[in-house]
Design brief:
339 residues; 28 strands; 47% strand; 7% helix; 4-stranded antiparallel beta sheet; globular; disordered N terminus; Methylamine Dehydrogenase, Chain H; mainly beta
Length: 339
């Protein structure tokens, strides 16, 4: 009888333990996202690649009509517009700690800086040998120098902002189309998507050696990327409709199909402080703003972009306001507020 009672007690404790264990493991909560868009007053200009300046203002470029502009999110007004020469085709803008915007003169063979007080432009020309003829996407390192990609020239570069001299690294794979670029958490090592191939790339900041990293699927085409706090590199596979991750320590890959599948065309990518990856599916209309929890390995948010988006090409997370800024081909500047 005592043995029977002991068995029942053991079973009871096991049941209670399982209930407690299951209760403590809860799925990630869906993230509430509020998207606000402001129409850009310059028609059909393809506003893109916004960047949050130290004062909280938003800088962006007009790729089609060749300008760099500033938006004040507090007053909801476009406060500055600096016209560039026709044909410059600015692709990206980033703002340094002094508040100076730097843009990629994608079709004019240079990187430029603008004095926001008087509009004076300083051009840093690329080499005459066409090794970096089309600066594409820019990123500051820890010293304030600029790493950049050149898609058509098939190279990655580093601009010394003090001397104005660029250092160019040719990508070994032909027609690799270096595209998205980020700096790691220490802001020393660049990571790059080679959009014309199924490869990522990185440059060792000590040896200055460029290394290509092949993704498992030969049909993959990574376009933009982000890094989580564990050092892993996350990317959107534009061709196949997947989100993927590369673990540099283990040299391993894992991937998940996007909610809209093969037609999703994930393009813009960023990461928030909770290690959630945010992507925009640009192959669907309207574009879908999608969140992925990298700890739970689950999609936690899907939100339509009201203007349609057309194509959202690049976006940036702003930690103090927990918001993500983007531009649309439908001529809007957008903010996704993560609630």
């Amino acid at each position: 009888m005592k043995k029977l009672i002991a068995v029942f007690v053991s079973i009871a404790f096991l049941v209670v333990a399982l209930v407690i264990m299951n209760a403590s493991v809860s799925p990630p909560a869906d993230v509430d996202v509020t998207i606000t868009e402001w129409e850009v007053p310059w028609e059909d200009s393809r506003p893109r690649d916004p960047y949050v300046a130290p004062d909280g203002d938003i800088w962006f470029v007009g790729q089609r009509t060749h300008y760099v502009a500033e938006f004040d999110p507090d007053t909801e007004e476009y406060t500055n517009k600096f016209d560039l020469e026709n044909g410059v085709g600015p692709h990206t803008v980033i703002v340094d700690d002094e508040g100076t915007p730097w843009y990629a003169g994608n079709r004019a063979n240079h990187i430029g800086s603008i004095n926001p007080e008087n509009g004076d432009i300083t051009k840093y020309m690329m080499p005459d040998d066409n090794s970096a003829r089309d600066p594409h996407t820019l990123a500051f390192n820890d010293e304030g120098d600029i790493w950049f990609t050149s898609q058509g020239a098939n190279s990655v570069g580093k601009l010394d902002v003090e001397t104005g001299e660029p250092q160019i690294f040719e990508v070994p794979s032909e027609r690799a189309r270096p595209y998205g670029i980020i700096m790691d958490e220490d802001m020393q090592r660049p990571w790059i998507c080679l959009f014309g191939t199924n490869k990522l790339a990185t440059v060792n900041p000590e040896t200055i050696e460029l290394t290509e990293i092949e993704l498992p699927n030969e049909d993959a085409r990574p376009r933009r990327l982000a890094q989580t706090s564990d050092g892993n590199i996350w990317y959107g596979d534009y061709a196949r409709g997947y989100i993927g991750v590369y673990n540099p320590d283990e040299e391993s890959f894992e991937e998940w199909e996007m909610p809209s599948g093969e037609q999703s065309r994930p393009y813009a990518v960023t990461v928030d402080t909770q290690d959630r990856i945010w992507l925009v599916e640009t192959g669907v209309d309207p574009n879908m703003f999608v969140g992925f929890d990298t700890n739970a390995k689950e999609f936690v948010s899907q939100t339509e972009i009201e203007s349609g988006g057309g194509t959202v090409r690049h976006m940036v997370f702003h930690q103090p306001t927990s918001s993500i800024w983007f531009g649309t081909d439908t001529n809007y500047l957008g903010r996704a507020q993560l609630n």
